[in-house]
Amino acid sequence: MKIYTKTGDKGTTSLVGGDRAEKHDLRVWAYGTIDEVTSSIGLARAYVKEKEISEKLLKIQKTLFEVGAELASAGTDYYKRRIEDQDITFLEETIDKLDGLKPSYNGFIVPGGTIESAHLDVARTIVRRAERYISELKNYYEISDNLMKYTNRLSDGLYAMARYFDYKDIMEKVEENARKFNQNRSVVNNSQSEEIDEIMINRMVIDRETAKHIAEKCVQKSYEIGVPMVICVTDYSGNITLLERMDDSLLASIEIAMKKAYTAAALKAPTHELRDASLPAGELYGINTVDKIITFGGGFPLKVNGTIVGAIGVSGGTVEEDMKVAQFGVKAFEEGLTNGVTK
Buried (b) or exposed (e) across 282-304, using 16+ Cβ within 10 A? Predict the structure, then answer.
């Protein structure tokens, strides 16, 4: 059988069931645009190496054949609903799963972060165009509500997939840049022994008593400057050892203090030093999109012999006030080591 049939030479095409329609018929615009979506998703899928997402995209492509068939049968005796509730549920579950893997982001996204996300964003915009045609088509023909719901969810689903690849790419770059950032910050002092006092490090644990001592000193400093604070002390992994909230401190400061301490422990640097590095030209560009990361002052690592053993995060006042109280906590920790108060 030859590919060309010549039946469309006069500007008409066949609908489901054999009825003929002009090629500029709104139904043809609608299912033709869905055909574009299917092809654009195929292009995106060619670049996707993750098996699970590739399989989801393939399933979507197969469902889109049903969408196209429903549109191509609109207004004929062969029209029937082809999109089921489970098709919509599949997209909603996919969106929820992918959305849960990344931090929330408020603002506009500039497409082109990765090859995968760029192609998925193109597919998403074509879906939106198809939606516009289908919305108009409903004024003239019977179109199922599920078909409208499916195309609407599909644009959201493709958006969620695109953002997943962008976030994954940012995380990989951030992790690599964070390693370089910390390597560049390391200063080798050849006059000191390269051996770490393992006994001292193993003995030094940010236990509750140590954390309590640091927090008490921070509270004392907070009273001096007249600002109620939230103080968070963590171990070297960023796990909370103690969280102290002073009366009348802001509720929002609880989460911010925890994030400051976590950031200082995870990136092994005071949080105020990360601001410039997180700007577009910086080594850690994109890191402020990562959940739990703070890039303004108030978080400091706690060290013994140059090794991170914990961290402190303070929030409640201005950045300068937070830093002043946090630094007082660091000083209390260091003096406690000398005086035997911390252990």
Answer: bbbbbbbbbeebbbbbbbbbbbb
223 and 157 housed in the same domain = no
Q: Give which of 291, 48, 47, 262 is closest to 174, Cα–Cα.
A: 291
Beta carbons within 8 Å of 280's beta carbon, 6+ residues apart: none
Q: At what angle do helices 145-185 and 85-99 cross, to 10 degrees?
A: 10
pLDDT digits (tens, 9 = 90+) for 107-164: 556 678 789 999 999 999 999 999 999 999 988 888 889 999 999 999 999 999 998 8
Q: Which of these, 115, 196, 124, 113, lies nearest to 153 by C-alpha position? A: 124
Q: How far apart are CA 203 and CA 196, in angstroms?
A: 13
> In terms of Cα–Cα distance, which of 33, 28, 34 is closest to 14?
28
Domain shared by 158 and 277, yes or no? no
3-class secondary-structure state, position 242 = strand
Instruction: Write down the residue that tokens 């919305």 correspond to.
Output: 135
> CA-CA distance, 234 to 165, in Å (whole number)?
31
Torsion of CA 196, 200, 204, 209, to 10 degrees: -150
Is 0.70 topped by the overall pTM?
Answer: no
Answer yes or no: is pLDDT of 291 > 60: yes
Structural domain includes residue 160 = yes
Residue range(s) defining the domain that contains residue 117: 12-178
Residue 112 is classified by DSSP as -
Task: Considering only CA atoms, give the Rg of the chain.
Answer: 29
